[in-house]
Amino acid sequence: MDGQNGSKKRGRPSKYASAEDKARADVERRRELRRKEAHERRERLHAEFYGLEYTPPQEDEKQTGFRIVLEDPGGLNTKRLEANHLEEEFRPASQQDGADHRRHTPEARTRRLADPPDPKLCGEQLRVADLVAWGDNVFYTGGAGTGKSTVLRAIVRELREQGRRPQVVTPTGISALNVGGSTYFSWAGWSPGVTKKSIREIETMAMSKERRQRIKDTDVLIIDEISMLESNQFRRLDRACRAAKQCDRPFGGLQIIVTGDFYQLPPVKPFFTCFDCGVELKTRALCRGCQALTVDGGDPYQSRPAKDCRRCCAPLHKQMDCPRCKNTFDNDNQWPFRSDTWAGCDFQCVSLTEVHRQSDPTFVGILNTLRVGDRLDKHQLSLLDGRKNDVGEAIELSPRRDEVELKNRKGFEAIKHPIHAYKCQDYVHIQAHHPHLEGKKERDGQGNLVGCQDHRFPPLLETKLGMPVILLANIDPKAGLVNGSQGRIVRYEHHEALMEARQRRLQASGEFGHLEEHQIVLWTEQQVPDFPLPVVEFENGNERPVYPVCQDTELGDPAPFSVVARTQIPLLPAWAITIHKSQGMTLEKVVVNLDRIFEPQQAYVALSRARSMDGLKVVSDVGLEALQERRPLGGGGLAVRTFMERTFGGSK
C-alpha cells in the first residue's frame, strides 16, 4: 500500500513518451511564440506602411485575432477588424464585388507615417523576414539589386532584438565585408587546407573547445553568396555542426538561412578533394555524344580537359574520381541544392522580383533576360553596344587577370612619384613520400618558387604614393579590413619601429604559426636597407600601415603534407578588378570588358554592378552580337534552370 501511495504522489504520468519528444514540443512552443510575435510585428509594419493606426491585441482577444484600427480617409467612422477579416479587407479592388473601396484609393495608399519603420522592406521582403522570425529554414533568392543584402541586415537586426544569436558567413572576405559577417572558414575554425582532411577528421576538429563553443553560441546560421559555396563544403559545414552540437538534425538543429543567386557566379574549383577521405580528385572528360572516355587516345584524366570532343564536337562533361575510395563526383552536382543536406533542411523558398538598384525598366529587362540565359534581341544589344558614356576614371571590370594587370600597369606608370618595391619570400618543404611534388622546389629566373607561381600575392610588389590598392588578406576583420577592401596609399613610414611592434603582436596561428613568423623575419631581412612600409587610407576611413603576411598551402597525399608558402605585403593595384571580385558591389560608374568572358554568368554579374545605363560603358572589340553568337551571355546552366523552375514554377 505504501508503494502504491508513493506512486500516486508522483502525480500524473508525463504526456511525453521520451525526452526527445519533450524537447521537440518545447521547440514547437518557442516557434509558435515567435510566430505570434512576428505576426503582430508584421501587422504593425503593414499598418504603418499604409498610414493606419495600430492597436495591439488584448489578452482576451488573442484567441480571436489582432485588432487593427483603420483610419478611413473618406471620412467614415473608425472600424475595428479582427485579424481573420484582414485578408478580405485588404483584398485588391478587382477581387471584391460591390465593396466600398474608398479606403484603398491612391490617396489612401500613398499616405505614410512621418517616421517610417527601419528597415524599409517591401511586401516580398517582409515575407522573408516573417518566415525567419517564425523559426523556419529559409532560402531566398533574387536577381542583382533586389535587396537580398538589405533583407539580410534586417533579419540580423530583428533576430538580435529577439535575443537570438545569428552568425553570417560567406565564401569570400569581400562578400563578408559587405554584409558584416565572416568567412565560413573563419567561423568554423578551418584553414584553407581543411578540404584535404577526411570528414571524420573534420568532425573531430569540430569537437575542440573553441570550435564547439563558437558553433554552440550560434542560434541562426546565415550563409550568403550560396552560389559560390561548393556542395561538398556545404556538407562539411553540416557535419561539423552536427558533431559540435551532438545532434543528428541538419546543421545540428541550427536554424539555417541561405541566400544568393544561383544564376550568378558558380563555385570556384569545385570537387578538388574527396568528401569522405580528402584525397585530391582526378578529373576526366566524358563525351555524351560518342560516349568516349578518352579524346584521340589521350589520358582521360587531365588537369584542364577540353570543352568539346575532338571526335564528334559534342560538349564534354567533367567527372571527378577519387583514386582511394572510388567515389565519383559529377560536375553538375557542384551546387548545394544537389546535396542531401539541402533536402534535409526543408527550406521555405522565396524569390525576390522587385529590383531596387536600377530604376530604368529597360535596363532591368536587359538584366533579367541575361540572368536566366535567354538571348538579347537586336534592340537590347544595340542599347548595350552603344554604351559609349564618358565615365571618367571609373574602375574597370574584366574577366581575366592578365587584362586587369595591363590596366593597372598603365595607371601605375601615369603616377610620377618614386617606386617603392617589395620582393616576396618563398618557402617550400616537400615530404619524402611526395616525390611527384619535387618540381615545385624549382625556381624561375627571378628566384621565385615554381610552386608559388599561381599564388595571389605578387612576387614583386611595386607601389607609389597615391595609387589605389586592394587588400588581399584579412588583416583586421573587426575593423572591416579584409580580403577585397580598397583604399589609397597616403604615405610611407620607416619600418623598424613598426616591424618591431608587429613582431611583438604576432601570435602563432595554427600549426604553421612559427613558420609564418620566421618567414616574415626573413622577408624583412631581404628588403633594401631602411625600407618604408605603405600606409593605406581605406574607404571605410581606417588608416594604417600594411605589414607583410605569410600565407602557406598544404600539398600532396597522404599526411604529413608538404608545404609551400609566400610572404609579401598583401596589396595589389586597383585601377581594375576581376568580375569575380566585384560580386555584391554597386558602382555608380563602371567600365565592363566582355570580350574574354569564360563563364556565362560573368556578363550578367558585371553589367548588374552598374546602378544605371548612364554610368555604364561596355567595351567589346568584336561587338556584343558576335559575342552572343559565340556563347551564352548569361544563365546558370541546365542544372540551375531546372532547380529554379521546379522550386518557383519558372525562371526566377
Overview of the molecule:
It is built from 21 helices and 26 strands. The strands form seven sheets. Strands 6-5-7-8-4-12 form a six-stranded parallel β-sheet. The protein starts with a helix and ends with a helix.
Secondary-structure blueprint:
Elements: H1 2-9, H2 19-49, E1 53-54, E2 68-70, E3 79-81, H3 86-89, H4 106-109, H5 123-133, E4 138-142, H6 148-161, E5 166-170, H7 173-179, E6 182-183, H8 184-188, H9 199-206, H10 209-216, E7 220-223, H11 231-245, E8 255-259, E9 282-287, E10 316-321, E11 328-330, H12 340-345, E12 348-352, H13 361-371, H14 378-385, E13 395-398, H15 401-413, E14 420-423, E15 425-429, E16 460-463, E17 468-471, E18 486-494, H16 495-505, H17 513-525, E19 532-538, E20 543-545, E21 549-555, E22 562-568, E23 571-573, E24 576-578, H18 579-582, E25 590-593, H19 601-607, E26 616-619, H20 624-630, H21 637-648
Helix pairs in contact: 2-5, 5-6, 9-11, 10-11
Outline:
This protein is of the alpha/beta class and 652 residues long. 32% of the residues lie in helices and 18% in strands.
Question: How many whole angstroms does the radius of gyration measure?
Answer: 29 Å
Residues in β-strands, percent: 15-25%
Helix content: 25-40%
How many helix segments?
21
Biggest sheet, spatial arrangement of strands: 6-5-7-8-4-12
Largest sheet: 6 strands, parallel
Q: Which key features would you list for this structure?
A:
single chain; about 650 residues; alpha/beta; six-stranded parallel sheet; 21 helices; about 20% strand; globular; disordered N terminus
